[in-house]
Amino acid sequence: MTSYETPTVHGVHLVHDGPVTAPPLLLIHGSGASGSTWEPMVPALAERFHVLRIDLPGCGRSSTAATYAVPDQADRVAAVLDELGLGKVAVVGHSSGGYVATSLAERRPDLVGPLVLISTGPTMEALRPEPALVKLLTGAVLGAVIWPLRTDALLRKGVAATAAKPVTISDEAVEDLRRTSFKTFRAIMRANRAYLAEQSISERLNRSGRRPLVIFGDADPRWDPASAQAYDTVSGSRVAYLAGVGHVAMLEAPAETARLLFEFLG
After folding, report:
1. Cβ contact 120:98 at 8 Å
2. Which CATH number is associated with domain 3-265?
3. Neighbour count for residue 95 (Cβ, 10 Å)
4. What is the rounded distance in angstroms from the CA atom of residue 17 to the CA atom of residue 245?
5. What is the C-alpha to C-alpha distance for residues 176 and 37, in angstroms, rounded to an integer?
6. Which of 27, 91, 125, 166 has its CA 20 to 30 A from that of 75?
7. What is the pLDDT of residue 8?
8. How far apart are CA 195 and CA 100, in angstroms?
């Protein structure tokens, strides 16, 4: 598998995997994470695609930004794709990365081909109470104090708290998690809530004429799995459930998730 990094484009870090002559596939991570969280899926995907793993601004090895509004994040991703001369890219978003993917399709339909949303909550009403450890780490009261004191073990436990199966989190992914500041994380979360409050994801998809593949773990502790039914209102969409999988399908069930992508993308 060929893997390399390109110089930071517009302050955004990007890793390429697979042959550049293959169809492009963009992977967008969730809040506070990074492109390294996709690692377990990359070897399989890179056999068929030119895989691009992006670190959104403020996350991983990308620069911070003045604003983390979802449309602004989408515009920054668009600038990277424009710089690379790519268009009609298959786009996969995990969790809130699905909001950036949806906004990218709204704002720059010329850049986005097939669209896949993984564990992407359609409305704020679908949000479940946070696991105790996650709430402790990210809460407004104690989060700012605990955030700088996070150990590697605590970071791994925080990710594992959103999973339903045992997961392995690489050292690189842990280090990338550490790079996101508490202030940035909170700003990203506020921006995500504002995007959902303005309009649901299913409404946005219908308005833009998108027909996505939606993947949900049926044991997701973050978003109510039943909320995926909201995507049934999107004409031409497909909803697939992963049995016994929580919120981080790329870590819990990489082979099954990749298989669903292959079936959808062709």
Report:
1. yes
2. 3.40.50.1820
3. 26
4. 26
5. 9
6. 125
7. 63
8. 10
Cβ–Cβ under 8 Å, residues 162 and 247: yes
Spell out the residues 6+ positions from residue 259 whose beta carbon is closer than 8 angstroms to its own. none
How far is 57 from 64, CA to CA, in rounded Å?
5
pLDDT exceeds cutoff 70 at 204: yes
145 band by pLDDT with thresholds 50, 70 and 90: confident
Please state, in angstroms and rounded to a whole number, the distance separating the CA atoms of residues 158 and 244.
19
Contacts by residues 153-159 (CB-CB < 8 Å, ≥ 24 positions apart): 157/133, 158/133, 158/134, 159/248, 159/251
Q: Cα separation of 242 and 250, whole Å? A: 11
Nearest to residue 133, comparing CAs of 111, 151, 110? Answer: 151
CA–CA separation, 35 vs 26, rounded Å?
10
| Overall pTM surpassing 0.90 (yes/no) | yes
Q: In this structure, what token pair is assigned to residue 93?
A: 């978003």
Domain boundaries, the chain: 3-265
Question: Residue 45 in contact with residue 15, Cβ under 8 Å?
Answer: no
pLDDT grade, residue 2 (50/70/90)?
low
Of the candidates 100, 128, 118, the one whose C-alpha atom is nearest the C-alpha of residue 204 is 100
Q: What is the pLDDT of residues 23-80, one digit of tens each?
A: 999 999 999 999 999 999 999 999 999 999 999 999 999 999 999 999 999 999 999 9
Q: Tokens 């550490």 sit at which residue?
A: 178
Residues found in the chain? 266
